[in-house]
Design brief:
The chain is mainly β. It has a domain of 65 residues: Dodecin subunit-like. The protein is built from one helix and three strands.
Length: 95
């Protein structure tokens, strides 16, 4: 089976260049009574004051509280990546 031919009228999209900066990581924990996904969302919500636009989330630990042999609370520890803009260098004064 041959691969479909590329459409010559279609122009590939260009991603905007990110602002100069560094990628930082912040650790957070979250909990949910319903799911792992809910626990991750809770962790991201908990750092919203520090992190405006998260780039990604790394889940590095998951555990659960049990009650009567069933999961009562899902818990996660995550690292949230975000970009911190660089400040322009201060002008140097000559003596």
């Amino acid at each position: 089976m041959a691969a479909p031919a590329a459409d010559p009228s279609r122009v590939p999209s260009r991603k905007a260049k990110p602002e100069p900066g560094v990628v930082r990581l912040v650790d957070a924990t979250g909990a949910s009574p319903t799911s792992w996904e809910g626990a991750v969302a809770d962790a991201v919500r908990s750092v919203r004051k520090e992190v405006r636009s998260p780039l990604g989330v790394e889940i590095f630990r998951q555990w659960a509280d049990l009650q009567d042999g069933r999961i009562a609370t899902y818990r996660v520890s995550v690292r949230i990546a975000y970009r911190q803009a660089l400040k322009p260098p201060a002008a140097r004064r000559s003596a």
